[in-house]
TrEMBL record:
InterPro entries: DUF6596, RNA_pol_sigma-70_dom, RNA_pol_sigma70_r2, RNA_pol_sigma70_r4_t2, RNA_pol_sigma_r2, RNA_pol_sigma_r3/r4-like, WH-like_DNA-bd_sf
Source organism of this protein record: Paenibacillus chibensis
TM spans (from-to): none
Domain DUF6596: 183-283
Lineage of source species: Bacteria, Bacillati, Bacillota, Bacilli, Bacillales
Identification of the protein by name: RNA polymerase sigma factor
PANTHER family xref list: BLL0085 PROTEIN, BLL6612 PROTEIN-RELATED
């Protein structure tokens, strides 16, 4: 039973964005669409342990949810006309529909849903929180960690955002070109966060969620076709293409995380790297100041072009992080800059920068701060202190794979400390 429950949970994470997008097209109410999708999930949790998981679980969930949507509309006398229209112009999704979804209407619905939830009638924070909830299937706790905010704050934003979209009757569509630009920056940010959640999962049993990365990259490529003149669109696509080239090497045979410096670079996908470098060149050739996605793509390009970890041009990467920190100041960027500086000029310099971040309240519960500190302390031979930092990072981490890695590093630090003590 537990195994079936885990399988259903994995299916839900994959299928829920398509469900919610398709249902939103029918009922034109994103909050109601999410409720209907959740209803289908509840029915699956009740039936599948007894009947077995269908061969095409996405089609089963879509059919079940759509039937409930039509039943709901029929029960609402005010919407009788709409029921007739829905019954006349739509059919239940078949298995073939879902198979072809990413290339057809279902896949396009996801892009429409992003533009709907990124409507300027909502605040930037509300747009991003709602879209991460619907498109990535993240819990309010996971979104709160991404925002470095309180869970109750995120929950309120999401509820208010759904109500506002319904009250304002925001259309379910990709806007005309004249309205596209004002929503584009938020859409890019959402796709970027969606990709990051796939690249390093906030919680759960898997460190990466490749399908989420693939979907974010697909949406980015679609945006590049819609807005070919926007350099940051190409910058984001470049970033995702190059990062995606490493996905197969980010986990070991047992699903354990493999860090960048330990990855087998010969297994990086060269086609994706070439596509990413071409997209980066397009962005850089447009004659505009580099934006945050183009800068990050340039950083990943230096990694992609280094045949070995020792070949990496860390001083250039540190300079790019400096530019990124000036453009979009944030403690996360500063943390990454500290890592780059430690690699370029030595761990003592990086540790000095990290010590300045210790007082930042937004990083108080952010597990990567003690994780990076632990790594630098270990390199400096301060292994007892490193063990303490790795243990603290493990206590804060929500992802099981990442927690296991951090605990292993804590144990390695303890062993190394004992060896150093024997030598002295």
């Amino acid at each position: 039973m537990t195994s079936v429950k885990r399988t259903i949970d994995a299916i839900w994470r994959i299928e829920s964005p398509k469900l919610i997008a398709g249902l939103t097209r029918i009922v034109r109410d994103v909050g109601l669409a999410e409720d209907l999708a959740q209803d289908a999930l509840v029915i699956a949790l009740e039936r599948w342990p007894e009947t077995g998981i269908p061969d095409k679980p996405g089609a089963w969930l879509m059919t079940t949810a759509k039937r409930r949507a039509i039943d709901l509309l029929r029960r609402n006398k005010v919407l009788d006309r709409k029921v007739e229209e829905v019954a006349r112009t739509t059919v239940l999704y078949t298995e073939d529909d879902v198979d072809q979804g990413l290339d057809g209407e279902i896949g396009d619905d996801i892009l429409r849903l992003i533009f709907m939830t990124c409507h300027p009638v909502l605040s930037r924070e509300a747009r991003i929180a709602l879209t991460l909830r619907l498109l990535c299937g993240l819990t309010t706790d996971e979104i709160a960690r991404a925002f470095l905010a309180a869970e109750s704050t995120i929950a309120q934003r999401i509820v208010r955002a759904k109500r506002t979209l319904n009250a304002e009757k925001v259309p379910f569509e990709v806007p005309e070109r004249s309205e596209l630009k004002e929503r584009l920056s938020t859409v890019l940010e959402v796709i970027y966060l969606m990709f990051n959640e796939g690249y390093t999962a906030t919680s759960g049993d898997n460190w990466v969620r490749p399908l989420l990365c693939h979907e974010a990259l697909r949406l980015g490529r679609m945006l590049a076709e819609i807005s070919p003149e926007e350099p940051e669109v190409h910058g984001l696509v470049a970033l995702m293409e190059i990062q995606s080239s490493r996905l197969k090497t980010r986990v070991g045979q047992d699903g354990e995380p493999v860090l960048l410096m330990d990855q087998n670079r010969s297994r990086w996908d060269q086609l994706l790297i070439r596509r990413g470098l071409a997209a980066l060149k397009r962005s850089q050739s447009m004659g505009q100041p580099y934006g945050p996605y183009t800068l990050q793509a340039a950083i990943t390009a230096y990694h992609a072009q280094a045949l070995t970890p020792a070949d990496t041009d860390w001083p250039r990467i540190a300079a790019l992080y400096e530019a990124l920190a000036r453009l979009t100041p944030s403690p996360i960027v500063e943390l990454n800059r500290a890592v780059a500086i430690s690699m370029a000029f030595g761990p003592a310099y990086g540790l000095q920068l990290l010590d300045e971040l210790n007082s930042d309240p937004t990083l108080k519960d952010y597990h990567l701060l003690p994780s990076v500190r632990g790594d630098l302390l270990y390199k400096l031979g301060r292994c007892d202190e490193a063990r303490t930092e790795f243990e603290r990072a493990a206590a804060l981490a929500k992802n099981e794979r990442e927690r296991s890695l951090l605990l292993k590093r804590a144990a390695d630090s303890q062993s190394k400390a004992a060896e150093l003590e024997e030598e002295t």
